[in-house]
Amino acid sequence: MKIGVVKEIKVHENRVALTPAGVDSLKSAGHQVLVQRGAGEGSGIADEDYVAAGAELGADAAAVFGANDLILKVKEPLKQEWPLIRPGQTLFTYFHLAADRALTEAMVASGAHCFAYETLEVKGHLPLLTPMSEVAGRMSIQAGAHSLERHNGGLGALLGGVPGVAPAKVLVLGGGVVGTQAAKMAAGLGADVTILDVNLERMRYLDDVLPPNCTTLYSTPHAIRELLPTADLVIGAVLIPGAAAPKLIRRADLALMRKGAVIVDVAVDQGGCIETCKPTTHAEPTFVVDGVVHYCVANMPGAVPRTSTYALTNATLPYTRDLARLGARRAIEESHALRTAANTVAGKLTCEPVAQAFGMDWTPAEDAARSIG
Question: How is residue 144 annotated by DSSP?
Fold first, then answer.
């Protein structure tokens, strides 16, 4: 199969979808790989490294989209990329369709087969979301600590405090991968951490593995409102696979928080779990609502691309190989994991949670796949 890797154009997105080692693996399996010039520069990977691994270089995105059957990306196609996508082409990337109706409609209209990293499921786990969730969870504390500094609009609190001064209070909404990593980082810095979830088994696990300065608490709207007045930093880490994130903090709830407190909503790429959040970029990461600083960068791992690119390729490469070997139709028919990743197929929306988010019709992926020639 002809496989293309394009340069990301989202603001300050420096990751790339494939490393030279990935190129070598795909070439060894008999596939052709075309990489857009400069695609790996942000991650410290030179064009020469790709060529040495067996890739050819494409001048621009149009050349890569135009010449290849399978396109590998990191982030969702932006509007200027939509016209480059053709019917029957396969895309493998993070889509987060439930947060963007226009993108959803564009991908359906394109007739392309869109496989989303974030919905690929194996035995109840999301292996292609996990590495970036680990990065984002850890980064959320770095970003939150920076935003808490007075010159950045925060209330001027140090997460770990100092002898004689109490540490900051960190409230983590969600005990999944993001929330767990955030809690570990915050606890490691000496903060007073409370992590909320609704899964009792998960909380029992967290209670065993997290340090003593982390407290687990069952999540309810009442519990959240009780904790907000003393929270210095709130991390939104809620995930419902493929679906829009539920709003756990409403605009009115901000009145309970101190001026200069900080919210980092890691769920923003799925619509956010804080009502007042809207996507921001690394160029302008924060904004203030009712005195509360909001950090809502939708591609947080893009700020540490060297780590993120290699972590991502480590996870995606086995599924990329299967998708290239089988093609879209057989991948849906023969691979449960890739079937769960199929979000649009041959002009049909095939992800039920996305359909529910927008009140759209949907078709099971295996049914839509039958129309692929």
Answer: H
